Amino acid sequence: MLLLLPLALPLSCALLCSCSACLCQRYVELLEHLFSYSSQQLQALQRQQPAIDEYLREEQQHRLQFPRALAQLGQAKRGRTPAELGARIGQCCDLIAEGLQLVLEDEVTPRFAAAAPPAGEWNLLTRNLRQQKRQLSWRLQLLWLLSLLLRYTLLVPLRCLGIGGCILLVTLLTALLGQLPNRCSWKRSLVQRVLRQCFLLSTCFIPVVRRIHNAQHRPQFGICVCNHTSPLDVIVLMCDVHYSLTGQRQDGILGIIQRALVRASPHLWFERSALLDRQALCQALRLHAADSNEPPILLFPEGTCINNTAVMQFRKGGFAICNVVYPVALRYDRRFGDAFWDSTRCSMLRYLLLIMSSWSITCDVWYMPPHQRLPSESALDFSRRVKAAIAAQAGIDDLPWDGNLKRSNPVRDWQ
Amino acid sequence: MGNKSSLFLRHEEIAQIQNETGFTPNQIERLYSRFTSLDRNDCGTLSREDLMRIPELAINPLCERIVHSFFAESTDDRVNFRQFMNVLAHFRPLRDNKQSKLNSREEKLKFAFKMYDLDDDGVISRDELLSILHMMVGANISQDQLVSIAERTILEADLCCQGKISFEDFCKALERTDVDQKMSIRFLN
């Protein structure tokens, strides 16, 4: 009986997952209908209030013009001619106006906060409502109330129970699998299969809907780089391929999962502040990446979560290790719920509650053909090229700024 | 995913700010949402660091002065939403609908003058001019050259022959400049 358990578990998981895949499809279709209705209602409401309509149109127009206006200002700044006071003050005024314009609106800081939902649409989540509740029609208010009740009384408790069970299951299974002797040839494939089922099971409860593109480019070994939006990225990717993970050692729920995973398969968790580790880490990564029997290493070279509207500067470390990387592009569909974790503003628990109370987390995954470092290319240029490719594939902006500006202030070291 | 309830201002506050600055209620709400997103600690006021955190602003040569201009009225080195709006109101275009007392040509000029006049004594001294020049050209021009530029500029502009530039001299130098066009930024409606 006890021997049957390891067999029965993956089987039942597989069954549950295939059922849930079908259910997910229906669920997403249903939600799309619901949102199109709520958006229609909202637009009807906005037609009665032309001011708001005007405001949205102007905003869209402005978004198109904004970079051009900035470029013009930049030109004005460069064309300096040394002359009398008037000209000097003129230049100064240009700089002041340019600076103030950035106080109103800039390219970088909005990427560190949840992106605004598309104008004129509403997915019935309170957090995405851009106007006051009392301005809504009674139909929308009723719909909102029903969805609120459904999400918080049915979905959230069920999902929390489920995910708690998943964490328990992973901890138990990895403890069991960790007991197996390393010399068993089938240990690796068993671990991978079991963990993948666990992750698939957990996506039923953290409601992740995945759409995989270009599955033929799935990485088998080596180094895989990906844009980073939230810790969910790992779950999304681990459902498909078993990766070796790297990253900062965490506490709390993430810590429990990290410690569980490392018991059964090779992962690299380290203390980012301990710089002495860095050399050893590079060496370990290099050895791991060169071994085609080891699972691929998953790196998030941005080093921090960005709100999935842009890809920011990549750390070049990962690109110096290996001459070939396998890029993966992730894009979340914000209509059903935002996956972004604003770790400076909201705690892990609050973030989990936001995720659990969302409709679902819908994600497109693009596997991209491996990128080879050119002979004359530096690690930095290589990282830039890969970053541009990921941004183009996911259809999001490619920004040269450092994502760590989220936490630290910019330093003017060029003076 | 901040707390959305804080995104809405009370009607009285909007009316008061509208009265003081001439912004429309829509503009005020839009700027308030920007204000709250800059306020990383959710405390209702901004510090210098909050503004310096805008990377593109931080590389502006006059960044320090621009940020400083927000704190002219504040006593505790923090700026609240009303003070924030008062500073921005200087940059409303003149030709936009009705004029308020903050965006007249003279107010715009005063604002620019204060950028130079660090010690707030009503005149721009040689050192004050030099320090702005230094910020604008960086290390490209030597200190000696800068000093001679500053001295020449003062000699040229100084009408009362006191070796300093007064506000009148400052206005005179900008007589032919379209101040409204230079010192205005686009606010969405």
What can you tell me about this protein's structure?
The complex is a heterodimer of chains A (415) and B (189). Chain A is an alpha/beta fold. Chain A is built from 11 helices and 10 strands. In chain A, α1 packs parallel to α5 (187-205) and α2 packs across α3. Chain B has 189 residues and is mostly helical. Chain B folds into 2 domains: 11-89, EF-hand (Recoverin, domain 1); 102-189, Orthogonal Bundle (Recoverin, domain 1), CATH 1.10.238.10. Helix content of chain B is 53%, strand content 2%. Chain B has a two-stranded antiparallel ribbon. The chains are: A alpha/beta (415), B mainly alpha (189). At the A-B interface, α2 and α3 of A face α2, α3, α4, α5 and α7 of B. Chain A: Pfam families: Acyltransferase. Chain A: Keywords: Acyltransferase, Lipid biosynthesis, Lipid metabolism, Membrane, Phospholipid biosynthesis, Phospholipid metabolism, Signal, Transferase, Transmembrane, Transmembrane helix. Chain A: The chain crosses the membrane at residues 161-178.
Concise synopsis of the structure shown:
The complex is a heterodimer of chains A (415) and B (189). With 415 residues, chain A is an alpha/beta fold.
Descriptive key words:
heterodimer; A: 415 residues; alpha/beta; Glycerol-3-phosphate (1)-acyltransferase; eight-stranded mixed β-sheet; 11% strand; B: 189 residues; mainly alpha; Recoverin, domain 1; two-stranded antiparallel ribbon; 2 strands; 53% helix; disordered N terminus; Plipid/glycerol_acylTrfase (chain A); transmembrane helix (chain A); CG15450 (chain A); LPCAT1-like (chain A)
